[in-house]
Specification:
The protein has a single domain, classed as Rossmann fold (3-Layer(aba) Sandwich). Helix content is 32%, strand content 30%. The chain contains seven helices and seven strands; from the N terminus they run H-H-E-H-E-H-E-E-H-E-H-H-E-E. It has a seven-stranded mixed β-sheet, sandwiched between helices. Strand 6 (175-189) and strand 7 (192-205) form a beta hairpin. Helix 1 crosses helix 4 and helix 5 (111-124) crosses helix 7.
Length: 207
């Protein structure tokens, strides 16, 4: 899907994803002191807004201008401020000083574009900063619920670690993996709770 496709999807009076953060985000940042945070491919901005409410200086970046505008409106409704940028995360140039936290949640890209987005994510990460990625795992296609049905947009923890390793070499940085693997996400349906299978990777930049 390109920007126009996402603009069409987000062109609703209500939030597609509601206003609450992804269920994994609070758990993964609970041990971090608020600093500067980047929500890369922020969609409608729910994660960036939640981070701002927790005291983070948040920035949301997405190529959907409709999604970004909804994020800006959500921030205003919640009485917080955030920086909003309309840009392609595969080519966007982040500030040179880096962020203390980079969050990438459910970015649906084919392998080559995904690798480019991971370079952007690592480039945006300051020394000592944490990168948290959650995406639809490939196993979800056959054993989980919902999510994209095109395997080209699904991933594994190994895929992401490979992408990040390539980014380390290219950018001459050093990352330490803190978490890497599959996690289950509870999804409410008319037939009760179902389990979706996601990939979660958390790394810290040490140099």
């Amino acid at each position: 899907m390109d920007a126009s496709d996402w603009n069409a999807r987000y062109d609703t009076s209500e939030l597609i994803w509601k206003g609450e953060p992804n269920q994994f985000l609070p758990l993964e940042v609970a041990d971090l002191a608020p600093g500067t945070a980047l929500d890369l491919a922020c969609g409608e901005g729910r994660n960036a807004v939640w981070l701002a409410k927790q005291g983070w200086i948040a920035t949301g970046v997405d190529f959907s201008d409709v999604g970004v505008e909804k994020g800006r409106a959500l921030a205003a409704e919640n009485g917080v401020e955030a920086t909003w940028v309309v840009a392609d995360v595969t080519t966007w140039e982040p500030p040179a000083n880096g962020y203390d936290l980079v969050a990438v949640f459910y970015l649906q890209l084919a392998a080559e574009e995904r690798r480019a987005s991971m370079i952007t994510a690592v480039r945006a990460l300051g020394v000592g900063g944490t990168l948290v990625l959650v995406g639809h795992d490939l196993l979800n296609l056959t054993e989980g619920y919902g999510g994209p049905q095109n395997p080209s947009f699904l991933l594994t923890a190994e895929d992401i670690i490979d992408d990040l390793t390539a980014a380390e070499v290219l950018l001459d940085v050093e990352l330490v993996t803190e978490k890497s693997g599959r996690v289950e996400r509870s999804v409410s349906t008319d037939d009760g709770e179902r389990a979706a299978i996601d990939t979660l990777v958390r790394v810290r930049r040490v140099a």
